[in-house]
Every structure is written in structure tokens, then in C-alpha cells.
């Protein structure tokens, strides 16, 4: 196998031209086989095999800096930098990350996981290089989906002033995760299909070259001018008018053409954008036909492309999807908004039934929230469905545009808590802390699938800002016997005893119930409370618990700093209550990739660790009370 010759960075440069195309096929076969067993990002990686190979041929790593926007398409890059064995434990705890990681390899120039950041990071590298008088190349690879994010344009605007080389590769596959939307997508579609422009450009060049003695010089000079042939034929070229040199479009699966273009780009003394056209999922029919389905996939059968482990239980996302459609069918003011994640957030169903009330704003979470604020101010009932880690990108908009005006915007916060294999950049472990700090915001979290449905209905009618926070995966079907009506700001007492009180948040319900059972077996009385509302706190219940409990335990899948437990501790201290508080949650650190159950063990969020901690703290509290 040619792939056996790749043991480290730059080994691809020792291959013959005849070996490159077979290597591309070997890489695709390798990725399909490995990801079918481990799960991971498949379609995006299959689409950039030749592009990655050309980059590694044209640049020398790690001296040159290669930055992947988002980074889920970096698997071929990892293969070409000697990490082939790492694919055995891809995205497993302690194994290789599915994203670039500086601590993993010097060839990973920048940690990424969220979109639209690579141009800004690359521009920073360029400034550092120039200040220090160094000579390396900087390449930022950004997908057309990420170009719907405003941060990319802030960076492009800044890059236009450069007087030194900076290469921006626009990987254009007409996809983000879902199909691209908006003006930029339409603009790039025009460039992709501008065959008349391409043919005319070639015709002009060929004609000029035929001029005796001077033809080649004329073409060369025109190419070097700002108002080159493409400017004459396509006036108003967006990137050129921004001050960037534009090269392309280039076939993203033609290694020779890509290599030649990158070599040309290295000679430009300013920011240059190379427009590369690729096909997401290339080389594997199921991924080509359904690139969204193979964006992030679990283990699958290679022959059919079907998942090996299909869940028959509705996820929390499924419950949200069904309930919000039911609500919208009865209330024409309900509208739904996604930031390029219609499938992942369950809003594809809403789009199907209510297309005029569905809005996909592209990868632009901040815009999504302010857009929702405008809808709310205009009399509508907007619901923004977004992953917890991506909602972080709209923090200012939540404060300034929604909560300051106390507007009725519902945030459906999906993938909250530990999400597993995508790692640090995707764990939803900060939302309770940042949402809980904002005036006028209400935060809820359901204990099971039935309470999830009730909370979505409650939120849809709530007259102010409200967030419903729920995890990835199957909706919990335990505790069905407990379904008291939701009353604003009130918790739900499931078992009332004395001594120890456990108050859990949302999907920590199963763990809290297991801990209570174990404590009962050990002879400890235990009250169990479903917080329901993280904000506002149920202060009345807290006061009642202080009368016959010496220990109050909070359990949340959120960082402890500023989280639910922290707020409860502050309340008990402020009011001067005589009760010890023990907060159990995520330590003040980032949580790496791995199976969620393994991560819970590592962070102390599993039964035996919690029971041990509770018993220790209860004994301390009893001693303090005496």
C-alpha cells in the first residue's frame, strides 16, 4: 500500500506523481472502514482528500501553518502527519481527537471546533510572523458554510490591508451541515456555474497569446493587475472588491491543478483567496447522496450506509420536534429559527409543515438570536433551537437584544451537558452558568420525556425570555408517575423525608434516583427534589428544607463555577440558613472527548462516587450541627 509510505509529516512529498491518485483512493477506503467502526465525521473528510494532499505537497509542515476551520475535516491531514494508528481509538477517551489539537501534534497549528474562526486565527499568525521577521506560509481553510458566519467577514475585511502573503482556501461544497442558505451561497453558486465567464476568459487569453512577440507579456501583465481579465468580465467581484486577490474556481479533486494554484498563491504579496470546489462525501455513494446524514455519524454498515445501532426510543430532540410542531399547528404566531442545524435540532419537521414560519439563518448564532428578538418585538413567538456549545456564541445578543427588552424568545438548548466524542469544543457544560447570570432570563430543564413536552408547551406561552435545556440522546422514560403541573419558579418534590436533600437538574434525574436508592439501602433518609427551574430558584422550598435537613446536595451536568449549585450555595449563605451545601457537577476544567458514561466516571458524576461524597458530607454536616 502506498499509504504505508506515509509515516510522518512531509512523507507525501517523496511520492511520485503516479502514486498520488491511488493514494487518494486508499485514504478514502481507510476512512470509510475506520469511521464505520468508530463513528465520526465522514462526508466532510471524504470531500477534502485531494485538497489536503495538495496542501501537504505545496507546503512544509510544521514550519508552514495550516489552520482548518471547524476542524472536523482534518482526518486526512492527521493521516498525512503520521497519526494513522490513532484512528483505532478515534474520539475515544484518551484517544485521538476528531478535531485539530495543538497538544496532539505540532502540525496542528490551531485548535478548532466552532466555525468561521480560521481566517481570524490565520491573520494573527501572519501578524506574529511579520513582526518577528519570519518567512513561513500561513494557510486558513474555510468552508463555504462557515462563510455564512459574520466573524469570517470581519477577518476578511482586516486581511484586505495586508502587504504580505496570507492564503485563504475557500472549500466550496455547497454545504455546511445542512444545505447552505443565503446571499453568499447564491453568490458562490454564480461563480461555480459561470461557464460563460470561464470560457470567455480562456478565449481572451488564447487570442492575446497569438499576438506575435508580445502576446504572452500582455497576458502576464493583465494577470498581475487588480482589474485583470476576470474583473473586466465579472465586474464587482466580491472578494477582489474587498481587497483580496481571487484565484479560481479550481477543481478540488484535481491534485495537479490544486498544487499549481497553491504554488502561484504563495507568490502573492497580499491576502489571496483560492476558491476550491469539492464534493462532500466523494467516493462513497451513501455519503454523496446524504451528506448531512454522514456529517457526524455513529458506526454504520459500509455496504448499506445504515447505522449499526438504531435507537427505537425518541430522543429529547425528537420530543421537541413533535411538540413544537403540534404547538405551531394551533398557534400561527409560533416561528422556528435554526443556525444551519435544521436536522440536528429537529426543526426539519417544522420546516416541512410550516415553511413560511421556518428560518435557517446559516452559521450565525448571534444573528439568529437578535433576529428572534426582532420577531418577538413584532408580535411573533420565536423559538431558537441551538446546541448548547454554539449558543455561547450569542451570549451578548441574549443579554443585549433579548433579556434587556424582556422579549418572549424561547431558547431550545439542545446537546446540553456532556455530549461525548466531539470533545472540549462541543461539551454543553457552561450554559447554566452563563444563562443563570442574566436578568429576566428563565431557565428550565426536564427530568424525562413527558416533562420535556410540558416544558416546551410552558415556554411557548411564557411572556419573557426562557430557555429549556436538554441533553443529547434518548429521552429518559423513568419517573413517569411524577407529573405535577408546572408552576413558575417551583420545584417538584418527589420524595419527602429528612436529613439529606438531593436536588437535581434535568437529565441528572436517573443518577439522582439511583443515588437515593443506594442511600436508603445504607440506612440514610433522603428527600429527592426535581429542580425544574434553575432560574429562578425555588427559595421557599429551600427555606423549608433547612428546617429538617442538615445537608443539601445539588447534582448538575454543568461546571460548578456559577452553576446551579453555586447559586443555591449563595442563597443559603445570604439568608444565613443552618444547612451544609454540597455541589456535585463538572470541575473547573475542559472535558475531553470520549464516551459519555466514561466521562461521567472521570468527572465524578456516577453513582458510587456521588454516594461516597454524599455520605462523607452528611457526616460532616451532622458533626457541625452538634
Commentary on this structure:
With 626 residues, the protein is of the alpha/beta class. The chain is built from 26 helices and 17 strands. The strands form 3 sheets. Strands 7-6-8-9-11-10-15 form a 7-stranded mixed beta sheet, with helices on both faces. Strand 16, helix 24 and strand 17 (580-586) form a beta-alpha-beta unit. Helix 5 packs parallel to helix 6 (150-159). The longest helix is centred in the N-terminal third of the chain and has 22 residues, at 17-38. It is elongated. The relative contact order is 0.08. Mean pLDDT is 91; it is low at 191-198 and 226-236.
Which structural traits does this protein have?
single chain; 626 residues; alpha/beta; 7-stranded mixed β-sheet; 5-stranded parallel β-sheet; 41% helix
**Rg (C-alpha, Å):** 27 Å
> Major beta sheet, specifics?
7 strands, mixed
Q: What is the averaged pLDDT score?
A: 91
Biggest sheet, spatial arrangement of strands = 7-6-8-9-11-10-15
In which range does the helix fraction lie?
40-55%
Q: Structural class of the helix and strand makeup?
A: alpha/beta
Number of strands: 17
Query: Number of helix segments?
Result: 26
Strand content: 15-25%
Layout of helices and strands, plus pairs?
Elements: H1 17-38, H2 43-46, H3 49-58, E1 65-68, H4 75-80, H5 118-131, E2 138-143, H6 150-159, E3 166-172, H7 183-192, H8 195-209, H9 215-224, H10 229-233, H11 238-241, E4 245-251, H12 255-265, E5 271-277, H13 285-289, H14 316-330, E6 334-338, H15 342-345, H16 348-353, E7 358-360, H17 365-377, E8 381-387, H18 388-391, H19 395-403, E9 410-414, H20 431-435, E10 442-444, H21 449-461, E11 466-469, E12 492-495, E13 499-504, H22 509-521, E14 526-530, E15 533-535, H23 539-546, E16 549-559, H24 564-575, E17 580-586, H25 596-602, H26 607-625
Parallel strand pairs: 1-2, 2-3, 3-5, 4-5, 6-7, 6-8, 8-9, 9-11, 10-11, 13-14, 13-16, 16-17
Antiparallel strand pairs: 10-15, 12-14
Amino acid at each position: 500500500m502506498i499509504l504505508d509510505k506515509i509515516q510522518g509529516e512531509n512523507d507525501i512529498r517523496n511520492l511520485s506523481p503516479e502514486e498520488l491518485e491511488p493514494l487518494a483512493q486508499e485514504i478514502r477506503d481507510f476512512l470509510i472502514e475506520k469511521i464505520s467502526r468508530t463513528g465520526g465525521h465522514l462526508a466532510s473528510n471524504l470531500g477534502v482528500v485531494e485538497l489536503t494532499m495538495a496542501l501537504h505537497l505545496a507546503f512544509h509542515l510544521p514550519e508552514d501553518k495550516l489552520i482548518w476551520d471547524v476542524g472536523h475535516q482534518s482526518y486526512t491531514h492527521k493521516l498525512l502527519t503520521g497519526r494513522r494508528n490513532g484512528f483505532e481509538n478515534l474520539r475515544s477517551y484518551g484517544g485521538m481527537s476528531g478535531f485539530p489539537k495543538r497538544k496532539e501534534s505540532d502540525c496542528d497549528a490551531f485548535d478548532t471546533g466552532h466555525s468561521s474562526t480560521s481566517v481570524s486565527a490565520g491573520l494573527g499568525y501572519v501578524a506574529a510572523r511579520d513582526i518577528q521577521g519570519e518567512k513561513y506560509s500561513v494557510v486558513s481553510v474555510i468552508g463555504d458554510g462557515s462563510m455564512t458566519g459574520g466573524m469570517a467577514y470581519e477577518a476578511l475585511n482586516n486581511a484586505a490591508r495586508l502587504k504580505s502573503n496570507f492564503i485563504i482556501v475557500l472549500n466550496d461544497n455547497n454545504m455546511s451541515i445542512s444545505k447552505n442558505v443565503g446571499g453568499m451561497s447564491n453568490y458562490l453558486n454564480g461563480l461555480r456555474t459561470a461557464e460563460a465567464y470561464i470560457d470567455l476568459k480562456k478565449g481572451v487569453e488564447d487570442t492575446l497569446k497569438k499576438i506575435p512577440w508580445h502576446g504572452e507579456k500582455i497576458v502576464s501583465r493583465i494577470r498581475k493587475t487588480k482589474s485583470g481579465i476576470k474583473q473586466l468580465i465579472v465586474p464587482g467581484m466580491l472578494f477582489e472588491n474587498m481587497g483580496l486577490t481571487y484565484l479560481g474556481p479550481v477543481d478540488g479533486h484535481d491534485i495537479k491543478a490544486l498544487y499549481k494554484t497553491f504554488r502561484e498563491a504563495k507568490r502573492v504579496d497580499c491576502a489571496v483567496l483560492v476558491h476550491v470546489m469539492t464534493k462532500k462525501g466523494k467516493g462513497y455513494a451513501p455519503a454523496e447522496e446524504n451528506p448531512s446524514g454522514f456529517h457526524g455519524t455513529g458506526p454504520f454498515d459500509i455496504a448499506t450506509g445504515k447505522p449499526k445501532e438504531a435507537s427505537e426510543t425518541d430522543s429529547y430532540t425528537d420530543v421537541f420536534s413533535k411538540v413544537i410542531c403540534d404547538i405551531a399547528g394551533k398557534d400561527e404566531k409560533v416561528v422556528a429559527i435554526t443556525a444551519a442545524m435544521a436536522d440536528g435540532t429537529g426543526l426539519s419537521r417544522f420546516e416541512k409543515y410550516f415553511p413560511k414560519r421556518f428560518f435557517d439563518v446559516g452559521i450565525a448564532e448571534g444573528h439568529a438570536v437578535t433576529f428572534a428578538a426582532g420577531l418577538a418585538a413584532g408580535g411573533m413567538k420565536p423559538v431558537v433551537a441551538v446546541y448548547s456549545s454554539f449558543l455561547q456564541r450569542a451570549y451578548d445578543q441574549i443579554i443585549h437584544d433579548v433579556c434587556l427588552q424582556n422579549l418572549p424568545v424561547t431558547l431550545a438548548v439542545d446537546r446540553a451537558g456532556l455530549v461525548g466524542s466531539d470533545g472540549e469544543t462541543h461539551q454543553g457544560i457552561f450554559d447554566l452558568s452563563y444563562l443563570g447570570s442574566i436578568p429576566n432570563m428563565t431557565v428550565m430543564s426536564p427530568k424525562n420525556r413527558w416533562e420535556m413536552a410540558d416544558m416546551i408547551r410552558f415556554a411557548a406561552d411564557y411572556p419573557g425570555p426562557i430557555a429549556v435545556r436538554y441533553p443529547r440522546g434518548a429521552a429518559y422514560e423513568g419517573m413517569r408517575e411524577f407529573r405535577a403541573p408546572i408552576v413558575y419558579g417551583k420545584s417538584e418534590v418527589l420524595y419527602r423525608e429528612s436529613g439529606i436533600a438531593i436536588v437535581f437538574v434535568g437529565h441528572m434525574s436517573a443518577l439522582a434516583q439511583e443515588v437515593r436508592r443506594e442511600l436508603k439501602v445504607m440506612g440514610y433518609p433522603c428527600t429527592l427534589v426535581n429542580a425544574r427551574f434553575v432560574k429562578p430558584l425555588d427559595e421557599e422550598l429551600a427555606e423549608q428544607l433547612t428546617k429538617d435537613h442538615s445537608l443539601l446536595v445539588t447534582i448538575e451536568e454543568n461546571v460548578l463555577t456559577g452553576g446551579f449549585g453555586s447559586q443555591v450555595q449563595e442563597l443559603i449563605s445570604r439568608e444565613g440558613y443552618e444547612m451544609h451545601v454540597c455541589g456535585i457537577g463538572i470541575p473547573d476544567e475542559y472535558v475531553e472527548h470520549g464516551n459519555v458514561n466514561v466521562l461521567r466516571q472521570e468527572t465524578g458524576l456516577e453513582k458510587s462516587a456521588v454516594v461516597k461524597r454524599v455520605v462523607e458530607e452528611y457526616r460532616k454536616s451532622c458533626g457541625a450541627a452538634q
